[in-house]
Write a structure and sequence with these properties.
The protein is an alpha+beta fold and about 325 residues long. It is built from nine helices and twelve strands.
Length: about 325
C-alpha cells in the first residue's frame, strides 16, 4: 500500500481525494461548519491509504526552499542597512526577521497600520507584488531627506503627492537592493504601479492565493519601523529549485576557480623590506637623539628579509634602480 505524504498536491490528486470523500459518503465542509479533529489515515475503495490533509493549508514551500529564501532576504537586509543609513545619514540597522507563506487574505488581516503601501510590477513576474512601509518610519525619512531632524511628533494618515515623491528617494533604492539580492535567481526590474495608505485598496490578489511575506525590521537612533514585501507564490513557483540550495552549492566543483583567482589577484597586499632588527631598552629609546646610531644584528652583504602582510616571505638583495632603491628577490623562505 502507498501512503501520500507530500502536502503539495496536483490537480489529479485533489480530484482523487474528492472522489474518495464522496464515495465514502463524507460531506464537504460548508461555511460555518465546525472543523472536525484530524482523523487517522483511512483506506479508500481502491486500497490506497490516504493521510488527512487540510486542503486550505498554504504550505507550498519546502523547508529547504524556505530556508533558501531566507538566505537571500537576509542578504537583502544587510544591503538595506547600508542604503537606509546612507540616505538618512544615520546609523541604521535592517534585519530580515521573518519569511512566511500564507493566504493573501490572512496577510491583509494582519497588516498593521498605518502604513504606506506600494503596488509593484516586478518584471518578468506577471502578477503584482506589494511593499509596505511604516508611515512613522517613512515620514521621519521624508523629514530627514528634506533637511529636518527626522524626529516627527505627529504622523499624517495619508501622504501628499509631494511627500510620496520625496519618500521614493528612499523606497526606490530599497527596491534596488532587494532586486540585487535576488539577482542570482531572477533578474527583476521594478516599477511602482500605485501608492496609497488605505489597506482596503491593497486587494490586488484573490484572498485564497498563497503569498510569500518578507518582514524587515528597521531600527536606528530615534527611527523604528518595518518594511514588508509580499510576493505571489505563483510568481516564485518556477524558481523553487533555485531557492532550494544556495548559490555556491548549485555550482559544479571548481566552477568558481577562475573567478576566485581573478578576485584574489586584484587584492592589494603590503610588502616591506627589513634591513635588520635589534632590541633596546625603553630607557635607551627615550634617550635617542638625532645622529645616534643603532647597531643592527644583520651584517653588510647579507640578504634582507621581505615580509608580505607582516610575515617573512622572501630574502632579497638591496640595490638601486636609477635614483630609487629596490630589492632583487634571492630566495623564497620556508613556511
Amino acid at each position: 500500500m502507498t501512503q501520500l505524504t507530500n502536502e503539495i498536491l496536483s490537480n489529479d490528486e485533489i480530484d482523487a481525494l474528492l472522489r474518495m470523500f464522496r464515495s465514502d459518503g463524507a460531506a464537504l465542509e460548508t461555511p460555518g461548519t465546525p472543523r472536525r479533529p484530524a482523523a487517522a489515515p483511512v483506506a479508500g475503495t481502491d486500497g490506497v491509504v490516504v493521510s488527512p490533509i487540510d486542503l486550505l493549508k498554504p504550505n507550498r514551500l519546502g523547508r529547504e526552499q524556505l530556508r533558501g529564501l531566507e538566505r537571500y532576504f537576509e542578504s537583502a537586509g544587510k544591503m538595506l542597512s547600508a542604503t537606509i543609513g546612507d540616505k538618512l545619514r544615520l546609523e541604521t540597522r535592517c534585519d530580515c526577521v521573518a519569511v512566511e507563506q500564507l493566504r493573501f487574505g490572512n496577510w491583509l488581516e494582519q497588516l498593521p497600520g498605518p502604513v504606506a503601501i506600494y503596488a509593484l510590477q516586478l518584471e518578468p513576474f506577471k502578477l503584482p507584488a506589494l511593499l509596505t512601509v511604516s508611515t512613522s518610519l517613512l515620514y521621519g525619512a521624508v523629514d530627514r531627506i528634506l533637511g529636518g531632524s527626522g524626529k516627527v511628533q505627529k504622523v499624517p494618515k495619508d501622504f501628499t503627492l509631494a511627500e510620496h515623491t520625496v519618500a521614493e528617494a528612499l523606497v526606490g533604492p530599497c527596491l534596488d537592493r532587494i532586486c540585487e539580492a535576488l539577482a542570482d535567481v531572477v533578474k527583476l526590474k521594478w516599477t511602482i504601479a500605485n501608492r496609497f495608505c488605505n489597506p482596503s485598496m491593497a486587494q490586488i490578489l484573490p484572498s485564497q492565493d498563497v503569498v510569500v511575506s518578507v518582514y524587515f525590521q528597521v531600527s536606528g537612533d530615534f527611527l523604528l519601523g518595518d518594511l514588508r514585501l509580499v510576493l505571489p507564490f505563483a510568481s516564485l513557483e518556477p524558481l523553487l529549485d533555485k531557492f532550494g540550495k544556495d548559490t555556491v552549492a548549485r555550482m559544479e566543483p571548481g566552477a568558481m576557480k577562475q573567478k576566485l583567482g581573478q578576485s584574489v589577484r586584484q587584492m592589494p597586499i603590503d610588502v616591506s623590506v627589513e634591513l635588520g632588527a635589534t632590541s633596546i631598552r625603553l630607557r635607551q629609546l627615550m634617550e635617542l637623539q638625532p645622529g645616534d646610531v643603532i647597531p643592527l644584528g644583520a651584517h653588510v652583504g647579507e640578504p634582507a628579509v621581505v615580509p608580505v602582510m607582516g610575515k617573512p616571505k622572501f630574502t632579497a638583495h638591496i640595490g638601486k634602480i636609477g635614483n630609487r632603491f629596490g630589492v632583487q628577490v634571492a630566495d623564497v623562505m620556508g613556511q
